[in-house]
């Protein structure tokens, strides 16, 4: 088969690009260990309240300036809805929803995630600046969605 010179060049260019892209992805996955989140913990959304961990939502001190917030979400509230931690605290939020998908977003921080029925979500955030932060639901979850918020007070 006789091929046009330009066609041949472009075919080689395309193959080289594919090989480079696959090598980068392969290197990241196998050599650097990059992969989608694998922290997978299941929970039955209908029995969240009876779950040994989520039966008592609240703020728990787990170490030296380390806190764990056990939080449940439902239309249209976060529980606890008032969280208070000292400045510089490393706070791990463990969250479960009792009904639909909710979002958890604290503006001006990196805390932004979804909580999906059936799964426990975990996210850690360090609060280095004192002040009052608002936590909002940023996944539309029903008619009262805009009311769904909590406050985090970071004390000096
Ligand atoms: Cu919501």
UniProtKB/TrEMBL annotation:
| CDD domains associated with the record | ba3_CcO_II_C
Record field: catalytic activity:
4 Fe(II)-[cytochrome c] + O2 + 8 H(+)(in) = 4 Fe(III)-[cytochrome c] + 2 H2O + 4 H(+)(out)
Q: The Cytochrome oxidase subunit II copper A binding domain covers which part of the protein?
A: 62-156
What domain of life is recorded for the organism? Bacteria
One Pfam family hit: COX2
| Any single GO CC term annotated in Swiss-Prot or TrEMBL for this entry | membrane
Single GO molecular function: cytochrome-c oxidase activity
Keyword vocabulary terms for this entry: Copper, Membrane, Metal-binding, Transmembrane, Transmembrane helix
Its transmembrane ranges are 9-30
- In which compartments does the protein localize? Cell envelope
Q: Which InterPro entries match?
A: Ba3_CcO_II_C, CcO_II-like_C, Copper_CuA, Cupredoxin, NosZ/Cyto_c_oxidase_sub2
What role does it play? Subunits I and II form the functional core of the enzyme complex. Electrons originating in cytochrome c are transferred via heme a and Cu(A) to the binuclear center formed by heme a3 and Cu(B).
**Protein name stated in the entry:** Cytochrome aa3 subunit 2
Species this chain originates from: Lacicoccus qingdaonensis
């Amino acid at each position: 088969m006789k091929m046009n010179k330009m066609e041949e060049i472009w075919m080689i260019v395309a193959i080289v690009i594919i090989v480079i892209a696959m090598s980068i992805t392969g290197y990241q996955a196998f050599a650097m260990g990059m992969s989608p989140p694998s922290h997978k913990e299941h929970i039955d959304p209908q029995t969240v309240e009876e779950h040994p961990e989520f039966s008592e939502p609240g703020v728990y001190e787990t170490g030296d300036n380390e806190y764990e917030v056990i939080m449940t979400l439902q239309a249209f509230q976060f529980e606890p809805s008032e969280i208070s931690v000292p400045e510089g605290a490393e706070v791990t939020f463990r969250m479960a929803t009792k009904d639909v998908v909710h979002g958890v977003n604290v503006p001006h921080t990196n805390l932004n995630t979804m909580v999906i029925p059936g799964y426990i979500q975990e996210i850690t955030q360090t609060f280095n600046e004192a002040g009052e932060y608002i936590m909002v639901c940023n996944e539309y979850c029903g008619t009262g969605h805009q009311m769904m918020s909590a406050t985090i007070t970071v004390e000096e």
